[in-house]
Amino acid sequence: MKITKLGHCCLVLELSGATVLTDPGSFSEAQNELTGIDAVLITHEHGDHLHVESLKKVLANNPTALVIGNQAVAKLVQEQIADTVVTVVGDGQSSDVKGVRVEGFGKVHAEIYGDMGQVENTGYLVDDKFYFPGDAFHAPVKPIDVLALPVAGPWMRMKDAIDFTKAVKPRTAFGVHDAMIQPFFRGFIGNALKMFAPDTAYVSLADGESREF
User: Fold this and answer.
1) What is the domain range of residue 27?
2) Kind plus residue range of the DSSP H or E element containing 164
3) Among 40, 81, 96, 126, which lies 20 to 30 A Cα-Cα from 195?
């Protein structure tokens, strides 16, 4: 499995004959020029995960690409992008992309404060190996090989990232949801994970970097 991090939570997954783009949000632009995308996977509707103008460009460049998201994402996308049908995969549901299984876990965005930002959030297990949780720490009751680990945001502390890693027990994890962090500080996060969750190999992906997992 090859993963390219475009920025924040926008990734390109190349696995088992399918190419999947995740969360084309407002904190990255490289997705706007991509071709060869089989599916776009969207965890929730916040602008740093779903930027409608970017999604329009992605779909224009990849007219046969599936869009997969939960019910709230489907409603927003189908209202704002004409003739776009979203394959709904919410908590406990699944679909596939060219034979690659996509399974949904979780229902609610992590709390910021009270009801603020409490939208539907779905984490996705892709190909029974890669877990992309969006903005929540809902752990699927399944083995996880590679975890896209949120490491910063108004809804979390470093402790949350460490505890989630320890709960999920992936073989490997890398940081996402980190556009607000100075690049030099990402190394500190990696060192903390290595110290407190040593059973997981943690790697830091720079924006634009690819790695085989």
Assistant:
1) 2-206
2) helix 158-168
3) 126
